[in-house]
Amino acid sequence: AQSVAQPEDQVNVAEGNPLTVKCTYSVSGNPYLFWYVQYPNRGLQFLLKYITGDNLVKGSYGFEAEFNKSQTSFHLKKPSALVSDSALYFCAVRPPSGGYNKLIFGAGTRLAVHP
Amino acid sequence: DGGITQSPKYLFRKEGQNVTLSCEQNLNHDAMYWYRQDPGQGLRLIYYSQIVNDFQKGDIAEGYSVSREKKESFPLTVTSAQKNPTAFYLCASSPEGGRNEKLFFGSGTQLSVL
């Protein structure tokens, strides 16, 4: 079965330190990969996507993600965390043959950045 | 939230009652989606519509119904058959045929049972 795993329910980081939010997937072929962020009581906002090309993708608010095909991972990173980055982060994967009705979301990782 | 308006923000349902969640978009997107979000779980697709007057069941359609009479509007009805309706409901849209386009989400509706 196709799936997306975010192994950490919560990640705690001190402000100014680098952060990583992990995502691994089990999808056949070359999937499309996405990261979304959700602030409290709000909808999801798109951060970045990987379709093809350079394995390091840059997105909004200084975030980037690294695609690793051999490890089937797409970890979200930021060199220096801000308190305002505290939110719920979702990894999502879409099989190459599917439309958005085939989008698979991870369970989410809560990022807490402490002053 | 990218031109998608969901209302109301909070909604309460009584036993045996049907309730309707509103979703309107002014992005001129052809495709619209309804997701359910439960704590500790990813989003799950309820229904989607790729064009006016057409919609398809998602992974958890039982107990829900939708209509797509206008391009801008995609209301979701939570029927009395849905025995566990308490959740955060998110509406989204995307351009038709945009296989690598991002989804645009509304701010959500929190539905609770009285």
Summarize it.
The complex is a heterodimer of chains A (115) and B (114). Chain A is mainly beta and 115 residues long.
Q: What do you see in this structure?
A:
The complex is a heterodimer of chains A (115) and B (114). Chain A is mainly β. In chain A, 0% of the residues lie in helices and 50% in strands. In chain A, strands 2, 5, 6, 10, 11 and 12 form a six-stranded mixed β-sheet that branches. In chain A, strands 3-9-8-7 form a four-stranded antiparallel β-sheet, with no helix packed on it. In chain A, strands 1-4 form a two-stranded antiparallel ribbon. Chain A is globular, with a radius of gyration of 14 Å. The N and C termini of chain A lie far apart (41 Å). The model of chain A has no long low-confidence stretch (mean pLDDT 92). With 114 residues, chain B is mainly beta. In chain B, the strands form two sheets. In chain B, strands 2, 4, 5, 6, 9, 10 and 11 form a seven-stranded mixed β-sheet that branches. In chain B, strands 1-3-8-7 form a four-stranded antiparallel β-sheet, with no helix packed on it. Chain B has strands at 4-7, 10-13, 19-25, 31-37, 44-51, 54-57, 64-66, 76-78, 87-94, 104-105, 109-113. In chain B, strand 5 (44-51) and strand 6 (54-57) form a beta hairpin. The radius of gyration of chain B is 13 Å and the shape is globular. Chain B starts with a strand and ends with a strand. Chain B has no helices and eleven strands. The chains are: A mainly beta (115), B mainly beta (114). At the A-B interface, strand 5, strand 6 and strand 11 of A face strand 5, strand 9 and strand 10 of B.
